[in-house]
Amino acid sequence: MFSLTLKGLLAHKLRFALTGVAVILGVAFMAGTLVLTDTVGKSFDDLFKTNNQGIDAVVVRHESQDHRGMAWPEVASDRELPGTFDLREEMGRRGLL
């Protein structure tokens, strides 16, 4: 059985070589795709991490969806965050409303 396999490989050297090249290229492209995806993801994570340094509060829409139907993540109410207050109540106490 082994000699028959060896004879078949020797008879079709080009096909055998091209099959090996195809396997090597396929593995290389898959590895490259995974590395590229991971690198781009890490770059965006680092970008958002550095751009959001020093931000204490973020203003978000009250609706859970925007005009395109995209869902926004649910966030905690501002009253649940320590050190925050309701601006309307504060302005009412000061007579500004």
Description:
The chain is mainly alpha-helical. The protein has one domain. 58% of the residues lie in helices and 0% in strands. The longest helix is centred in the first third of the chain and has 39 residues. It starts with a helix and ends with a helix.
- Helix/strand/pairing class, anyone? mainly alpha
| Average pLDDT, all residues | 79
Order of SSEs, N→C?
HHH
How many E-type strands? Answer: 0
Integer tally of domains: 1
What's a concise summary of this model?
By secondary structure, the chain is mainly α. The chain has helices spanning 2-11, 13-51, 87-93.
Keywords:
97 residues, mainly alpha, 3 helices
Write the layout of secondary structure elements.
Layout: H1 2-11, H2 13-51, H3 87-93
